[in-house]
Amino acid sequence: MNVTARWPVLDLYKFLLALLLIIAHYTSEYAPLPGLFDTLTTLYIVAVPFYLTCSSFLFFQKKDASIWRYLQKILTMYGAWSIIYFAFVVADWAVHGVTIKKVFSYLHECLVYSTYPTIWFLPALAVGMALTVWCSKRLTDGQLYVLAAGCYLIGAFGGSYAFCLEGTFAQSLLLAYEAVFLTTRNGLFHAFPLAVLGRAIAKNRKDGVRSLKRDGLLSLLFLAGLCAEGLVLKLVFHNADENTILLLVPFTYYELQFLLDLPLGLHWKGEWLRRMSTYLFTCQRIWLSAVPNVWWAFGELLALRWWIGLPLVLLLTILTAQLLIVWGKRFSPVRRLG
């Protein structure tokens, strides 16, 4: 039995987070939602940390988990999606033109970050998991947690707290790093700390009994805290990058702990939700970026009104994901996409 079948609520939650992520990407790139609804979409920042932490937790729950098989699966998925999106990149070059500089810039980004936006999560997860397994065999738990915390702080200074380094030597070092690696939101400074967090949760659940009420209360408190942290960063320091705020880490910890103890009988839908959430995450850019880049009329339609564009993007993405699920049952190469 798949290890996630023990916690069907995780599949439902990942599905809802995938939908939230699509909505947030649409509103930031095409048309905002009215009032409070648009503000609520900023909660999408909890999605990637949860995916990373949950993936690590599920890996370390398995007694016979093989990091090599795991990496092969993740990198095969990444390679397959990279081929699909590369077809759209070539189509974009054909429509809008291409230069040698543009090609080398694309190859550079492929090498150090990702072949296409959003699927950066897959190589980051591979790097983060490989580092977690490697370090856990060579360091004590305390040393591992200190290293992971340091990496997350570096990632935060490269993102949400970049303003703290203005005019310092550390900023010069960071800029030199980003000139090569483009961002600190990657496998080393983002996925690795969160993968360590997932390992810690797996270890914690083997060592003791959790309290559903306590974890639920603490997750709500840290959710309120990260919302306040995000508002301060935005209103006081005028920094709109909320992806690496500090309270995301304790919130993700208690959020996952709470969900793991939450009773919810969804076993009959678990497999579908699991695959649907993965496909929604990976195929959303087909309709948010790839198609609009080569078919300008579609992009204009998406930007016309949110109540036109958003339902259209959601519908097309869900239909695409469902087709992949159906085709995956018949064709083994399609199954490798998710």
Notes on the structure:
The protein has helices at residues 8-29, 36-40, 47-61, 67-96, 100-112, 121-136, 141-157, 169-181, 187-207, 212-235, 248-261, 270-294, 296-304, 306-330, 332-335. The protein is mainly α and 338 residues long. The two termini are 18 Å apart. The model has no long low-confidence stretch (mean pLDDT 93).
Estimated structural class: mainly alpha
**Overall shape:** globular
Low-confidence stretches: none
Arithmetic mean pLDDT: 93
Largest sheet: none
Distance between the termini: 18 Å
How many DSSP H or I helices? 15
Strand % is: under 5%
Range of helix content: over 70%
Instruction: Work out the number of β strands.
Output: 0
In short:
The protein has helices spanning 8-29, 36-40, 47-61, 67-96, 100-112, 121-136, 141-157, 169-181, 187-207, 212-235, 248-261, 270-294, 296-304, 306-330, 332-335. It has 338 residues and is mainly α. Helix 4 packs antiparallel against helix 6.
